[in-house]
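Quarterly update from the structural biology core.
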Amino acid sequence: MMFVVIACMLAGMAGGYLLRSRKIQFAHRFILGLIWLLLFLLGLELGANKMVVSQFGVLGFEALLLAFGGTLGSILAAWLLWTFCLKKGASK
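Predicted structure, tokenized:
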């Protein structure tokens, strides 16, 4: 299944490369519509799963911790990179 996904992505990249001189007007709206449809279908699937619905409290807290940790880690990494770049630029 993963090979199919990769093959579709590569085919899309090749098509985009070949059509790069043309302005593709519908692509953005089409992709956005598909993303909304996929999110809706994911919500339907999760809402129909009794085990997931019964664990929303635990899962929600874990998701909050992961989101907070990811955001904090990103801020820390960006700050470290910024200070490293500033020190490197000052030594030139």
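The chain has two domains: 21-49, 55-92.
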